[in-house]
Amino acid sequence: MAEQMKRPEPDLGEQTRVRREKLAELQAAGEDPFQLTRFDWDSTSRQIKENFDALEGKPVKVAGRLMSKRGMGKVSFCDLQDKDGRIQLYARQDEMDEAVYKKFKKFDIGDIVGVDGEVFRTQRGEMSVRAKNITLLSKSLLPLPEKFHGLQDKELRYRQRYVDLMVNPDVKNNFLIRSKFIQFMRRYLDDMGYIEVETPVLNTLAGGAAARPFVTHHNTLDIDMYMRIATELPLKRLIVGGMDRVYEIGRIFRNEGMDPKHNPEFTTVELYQAYTDFHGMMDIAEGILSGAAKEILGSYQVEWLGQQIDLTPGWRRLTMVDAVREYAGVDFAAISDDAEAVAAAKAIGVELAETADKTWGNALYACFDQRVEEKLIQPTFITMYPVEVSPLTKRSPADPRLTERFELFVCHSELANAYSELNDPIDQRRRFEKQAELRDRGDDETEMLDEDFLTALEYGMPPTGGMGMGIDRCVMLLTGADTIRDVILFPTMKPLD
Question: Whole-model pTM?
Answer without folding.
Answer: 0.91
